[in-house]
Specification:
Layout (H helix, E strand, L loop, with lengths): L1 H7 L13 E5 L5 E4 L6 H20 L6 E5 L3 E8 L2 E8 L12 H5 L8
Antiparallel strand pairs: 1-2, 1-5, 3-4, 4-5
Length: 118
């Protein structure tokens, strides 16, 4: 029976991972003060905070004003704003642009926009 079950019973599906959505604040020393992100993502918060603070420090050393840092991934968007040494970081899911197949195009709705023929 082990041979049959090995090939013909469906394997377990892995758990779906939901992309995080929330925000956190970090002070200038790198300590996370508040966090609204899910617990499953909190292990990564300190790493993100350190990278954001390093980017702000580099910009300050180069005398480049950096008030907002935005990073867009395929399914995730990260926006970090400067708080005079610290930062507030917003993490949100990116919505995919979906084209509805039966949507009316502007040209179809308003007709031909070419000049009238004489």
């Amino acid at each position: 029976m082990g041979f049959v079950t090995q090939f013909f019973i469906k394997p377990r599906k892995s758990a779906l991972i939901e992309l995080p959505r929330g925000s956190f604040t970090v002070d200038g020393r790198g300590k996370v003060l508040t966090c609204t992100l899910p617990r499953s993502f909190r292990a990564h918060v300190q790493t993100v905070a350190n990278i954001v603070l390093a980017a702000q420090r580099s910009a300050r050393d180069a005398k480049i004003p950096l008030t907002e840092l935005a990073v867009s991934f395929q399914g995730l968007k990260l926006v970090a704003r400067d708080l005079r040494g610290g930062a507030i970081v917003f993490i949100e899911r990116q919505a995919e642009l979906v084209r509805v197949p039966d949507a009316i195009e502007v040209d179809q709705h308003f007709g031909d926009q070419s000049p009238p023929k004489r």
